[in-house]
Specification:
This protein is α+β, with helices and mostly antiparallel strands. The longest helix is centred in the first third of the chain and has 16 residues. The protein is elongated, with a radius of gyration of 30 Å.
Length: 346
């Protein structure tokens, strides 16, 4: 005797799955079949609430003659009279009513991005939060900081203020500019063709020898926003990027070169390949983000730098911090600052 497979019981189907299907059927009279709602649709079809629409390329269901009444009754009996109310929408309405009572009025012209997200979106640190409900008139900012080190004389001018970088270096050993300051820069006085090096990791930036007029900028990962905004105020500068020798580090350099409208330049001393036998880190199959792909950009860099060619071939990478105490590093930096004296390797 053949057993009949019965569809799932309505109570076994989550309301989050049943609600959008039931709402579509009651609003338009039909809905398409989806894998997620298959059990719910089978249940409704078994109880003659819906029929399959004929002559449709994709499986589509429509309410039967008295399906409207039956579906409403089913949903109320199983999920309650308020089944049609989305909890998140209800929570949003509750939130808006609450905020109308407690928030300052008028709202400030600008506030920190994380404050706005905590009040109106998901949570403060969620970069992918839905910011739909943040008031349109409220400007948000992140107020990140930019960290510089240099012995080059520079004067950064804003509206009614001037930052003397030599004074800050003497007092603090670095220059720290927050986003408010960078947004209000009007002019930067500096040498023509100032040598600028963006450095990916904090250890390398902190330990990098400050040769002559070299300006080093800590540019962590793909967070290049403030670096680019600052450098756009320099009239002329000579730039290279110093990062890890992995594909991620090269992509950071590519991003900078595009935004700065400069040819991509990597700081790679010609002796860095000597670290391969002792310091190369293997890229595992599990760490696919670090694996070297085949790209036009890499093809050009491989021709220029043998160490990149060797790393691609062996699917390995090198950390920039490993070379920071090499006695040859100051000379390599000097060659970057004085490219006419450079005898190769960059």
């Amino acid at each position: 005797m053949t057993s009949v497979i019965r569809p799932a019981q309505l109570g076994d189907i989550p309301l989050a799955v049943a609600r959008p299907v039931a709402s579509a059927l009651l609003d338009t009279g039909e809905c398409r079949c989806s894998h997620k709602a298959k059990a719910f649709l089978e249940y409704l079809h078994h109880h003659e609430v819906i029929d399959e629409c004929p002559d449709r390329r994709n499986t589509t269901y429509q309410l039967t003659y008295d399906g409207d009444f039956t579906l409403r009754e089913m949903m109320c009996n199983c999920y309650g009279d308020n089944w049609h109310i989305n909890p998140e929408e209800s929570r949003q309405i509750q939130r808006e009513l609450f905020l109308q009572m407690v928030l300052v009025s008028p709202l400030p012209d600008t506030t920190h991005e994380r404050v706005a997200q905590a009040i109106w979106a998901q949570h403060s640190k969620d970069r992918k939060a839905d910011n739909t409900y943040i008031p349109a008139q409220l400007n948000t900012h992140r107020n990140d900081i930019l960290r510089l080190r240099t012995h080059a004389p520079m004067r950064i001018h804003g509206a009614g203020w001037v930052i003397d970088t030599e004074a800050d270096m003497q007092r603090f050993g670095e220059i720290i500019l927050n986003e408010h300051v960078i947004s209000n820069i009007q002019q930067i006085e500096s040498h023509d063709q100032l040598p600028v090096m963006t450095i990916e990791n904090i250890g390398a930036w902190d330990s990098c020898p400050l040769i002559n007029n070299l300006l080093t900028i800590f540019t962590p990962g793909h967070d290049t926003r403030l670096t680019i905004r600052f450098l756009q105020h320099l009239n002329t500068f000579h730039w290279q990027h110093f990062g890890d020798l992995d594909y991620h580090g090269i992509k950071i350099a590519e991003q900078l070169s595009q935004k700065l409208e400069k040819q991509i330049q990597l700081f790679i001393p010609d002796w860095w390949n000597e670290y391969l036998p002792t310091h190369a880190l293997t890229i595992t199959e599990a760490d696919k983000k670090k694996q070297w792909p085949s790209t036009t950009l890499l093809s050009r860099l491989i021709r220029q730098h043998r160490v990149i060619r060797q790393l691609c071939s062996s699917q390995s990478w090198l950390e920039q911090e490993a070379i920071m105490l090499d006695r040859r590093l100051p000379d390599a930096l000097h060659s970057f600052i004085n490219p006419k004296e450079n005898k190769g390797g960059f």
